[in-house]
Design brief:
With about 425 residues, the chain is mostly helical. α2 packs antiparallel against α6, α6 crosses α13 and α11 runs antiparallel to α12. The chain contains 14 helices and no strands.
Length: about 425
């Protein structure tokens, strides 16, 4: 039995080694890890600045995070139209270099200023540039691997994203504490430049660029058409295709709950465990480990199950795990119990992102990918921003634990309604989703 399990594990790991053996995808994967680290390091350094000046409530924390989200509403629609025309590799390189330069300027120009607006402005522009980088990175994946390897490739990229969002946040917090804010920003600048260096070596990817008579004329045409036609085409594509519409709805649900819990859970952990960052960082590591394990498991066995059913089941399990996490911290304040549940939460959440991204890659034609991912980004960020600000403001009036319980119920109900909808959908004689 043990020999069979070992053989199965070796076979599954071979799938990941096979994808990573493709040079171009490996370089993109490495660049993703480095760039995500830069994003989280930047976020931690800026949070540290605000904390030093005005030790805040969840609402103050949410206001800072809002400057990282707002650019997506103004820039993402235009970015998608540009990305569908531009060389995606060069776009990513340029974005990383520009972000590195902006971060490098912050310690010289803004760090010693009393007003917070200049720093918030820098944050806005950094994440405005990211609005070009993220869809370009997602759109280039199918150009680097075959369709048969997309699920495995997306699993690895989800692992990278989770590391950047959780594990690197913990590492960034420790580094900023060690290097202080100024040193952390310098390191952040270097990380972005290093990410660009990794992407430079990608070669031979498929490119489809439209012919233009004059670059300046092309840019003007892009700006005019992207807002009035191409973004409309992106949302129309989502409206007319059930799988894309389903992915749109599921990502909105996931990000709405994540936004409501994001700022609130930080204060909740601090109050429950009686520490500022120690327990928060350690619990973040367990959550990140869970994301990693969940992504690996689903990447290996996910092809055996319906992606739609997997998403609904994981939403239900995510709600149950979040409820248990809140109850353990609120009732027992047991770190061992909370860390175990945090790992389970990461495991059951990871397949949601993998499944939705894979469904989009499988159904969306290459020329539309940038617009579709930009449209999805708008919906996700809007859900995150609204629910983050609303929940953090509410947390100043009621106990944070009740807000987290509410998020748990929201996820469970969303999953159950999804199963009911799927059952009715098929009873009408319509083909089910994949």
């Amino acid at each position: 039995m043990n020999a069979e399990a070992l053989s199965c594990r070796e076979l599954n790991l071979a799938k990941f080694r096979e994808v990573l053996s493709e040079r171009n995808f490996f370089l993109l994967w490495v660049g993703q890890i480095i760039s995500q680290f830069g994003d989280r390091l930047n976020q931690v350094a800026l949070i540290a600045i605000v904390h030093d000046r005005t030790p805040g409530s969840p609402f103050e924390l949410a206001k800072l995070f809002s400057f990282t989200i707002i650019p997506s509403f103004f820039v993402s629609p235009i970015a998608g139209a540009f990305i569908d025309r531009w060389d995606k590799k060069r776009t990513m390189i340029g974005c990383d270099i520009l972000r590195g330069l902006i971060v490098f300027v912050i310690p010289f120009a803004f760090l010693n200023l009393t007003p917070r607006f200049p720093i918030y402005s820098a944050v806005f522009f950094i994440f405005a540039v990211s609005c070009f980088f993220l869809p370009a990175r997602l759109s280039i994946i199918p150009d680097l691997v075959s369709k048969e390897k997309l699920l495995v490739a997306n699993s690895l990229f989800t692992v990278t994203g989770m590391i950047g969002a959780v594990f690197w946040f913990v590492v960034g917090g420790l580094l900023v504490e060690l290097l202080k804010v100024r040193g952390g920003l310098y390191l952040n600048s270097f990380v972005y430049l290093f990410s660009a260096a990794a992407i430079v070596f990608i070669t031979g990817h498929r490119r489809r660029r439209q012919k233009t008579q004059n670059p300046a004329v092309n840019i003007e045409e892009i700006i005019k058409t992207s807002l009035v036609r191409e973004i409309r085409d992106g949302f129309k594509y989502l409206k007319d295709h059930s799988e894309a519409r389903f992915a749109f709805r599921m990502l909105f649900v996931l990000m709405a709950g994540a936004g409501a819990a994001y700022a609130v859970v930080i204060v909740f952990i601090q109050q429950a465990m009686g520490s500022m960052t120690r327990d928060l960082s350690l619990l973040g590591m367990f959550l990140g480990a869970g994301f990693f394990i969940g992504s690996l498991i689903y990447g290996k066995i996910g092809h055996r199950f319906s992606k739609t059913k997997s998403i609904f089941m994981c939403l239900i399990l995510c709600g149950i795990a979040m409820c248990a996490f809140t109850a353990v911290l609120k009732g027992t304040k047991s770190f061992a119990g909370a860390s175990s549940v945090a790992m389970v939460l990461g495991i059951v959440t990871a397949p949601i992102g993998i499944s939705t991204n894979t469904m989009i890659h499988e159904m969306v034609v290459e020329r539309m990918r940038g617009r579709i991912f930009s449209s999805l980004g708008i919906a996700m960020n809007l859900a995150f921003l609204i629910f983050m600000l609303g929940a953090s403001k509410l947390a100043e009036s009621i106990d944070s634990g009740w807000i987290l319980y509410g998020v748990s119920v929201f996820y469970v109900i969303s999953g159950l309604l999804g199963f009911i909808d799927l059952h009715l959908f098929r009873e009408k004689g319509i083909n089910g989703r994949s």
